[in-house]
Amino acid sequence: MNYLAGFIFTSALALLSMFISGLDIVKSTVNFSPLIIAIIIGIIVGNSVKIPEVLKPGITFSLKKILRVAIIFLGFRLTFQNIIDVGLEGLIVDSFMLISSFVITVFVSQRFFGLDSQMSYMIASGSSICGASAVLATSPIVKGQMHQAAMAVATVTIFGTIAMFLYPTVYKAGLLPGLDDTTYGIYTGATVHEVAQVVAAGFAVSDEAGNTATIVKLTRVIMLAPLLLFLSFYFAKKHSTHGVNLREIPIPWFVFGFIGMVGVNSMSVFPKNVVNLINQVDTFLLTVSMAALGIETSIDKMKKAGMKPIYSALVVFVYLFVVGYIVTILVHKLFS
Question: What single DSSP character describes residue 55?
């Protein structure tokens, strides 16, 4: 019941966003999806008024729990054939960008900006895998302090939010030659920080781009588990300790729910009208999560991040944007 007030609040913002996105003037001009509009409204609300304490548990619930449920039921938009169609191409882009961006972030953070290893590894995991959740999952393994984790989260929030608006804008302007909706989805899923931001940036272009981006992004999310295992062993060896208990490493179980729903949809268990209804409800849940994400994107958090972590995150953001595009094009040509 503690979540109810905040969930009703984010749901109201979601309904408002869906209403605005359906207006003819919006469709004929910016043509923003309800996800983008929800984030904009959330940012305005979150930074212009003091959010009552009674709403905060429900807002957090909307951002974390509802998002995971929504991602699970995104599986009803896909079949295993869709995944096969993206397949190895998406996996190669994913793997290269994840590994290279992680290594480059750690190197740049420590060598050029003098950040400690804890901060550099948290920024690297957030930028290369799945944003704030990766930062928070990495923090106890690298023995990071709370203020370090907060700063790392702020950096991925800043540049992930920029990416969320930049990618669809640049693509629609025709400034990413060689990409179609599918390859745009691969590019977005392999380089944008948060799951929510990927979903927003993907579906802002088309359902095909959104579905592809989600698949590729969730492949990155799955890679969080082996990364955390690697870091736990690395830091255990580095500090000559036993490291963390492997059972404490968070595994993104919602990804397996997503895969399960894809399997159900692949078997055509439900008629099309039921699947369409599920997808409509899921769009609403995604919009609820986006509104919560916007509320949590505070200007105060950005100010507290400090400049060196921001400079480091900026470097990796440019790397993801530029090199990610080049790699996506090259790998696509390899498979053409």
Answer: G
Domains of the chain and CATH, by start: 4-335 (1.20.1530)
Three-state secondary structure call for residue 173: coil
* Residues 83-92: b if buried by 16+ CB within 10 A, e if exposed: beebeebbbb
Q: Determine the residue type at 118.
A: Q
- Rounded Cα distance between 47 and 51, Å, is 9
Tell me, yes or no, if the pTM score tops 0.85. Answer: no
Q: Please report, as a single letter, which amino acid is at residue 282.
A: D
Residue found by looking up tokens 């295993």 in the block = 80
| pLDDT tens track for 128-183 | 987 877 887 788 778 887 677 878 888 888 898 899 889 999 999 999 999 999 99
Q: Which of 194, 202, 201, 246 is nearest to 68 (CA)?
A: 194
Q: How far apart are CA 330 and CA 319, in angstroms?
A: 16
DSSP 3-state helix, strand, coil percentages of the chain (rounded to 5)? Answer: 80, 0, 20
Hey, what amino acid is at 252? P
**How many Cα atoms occupy the beta-carbon half-sphere of 171 within 13 Å?**
26
Token digits for 19? 């209403």
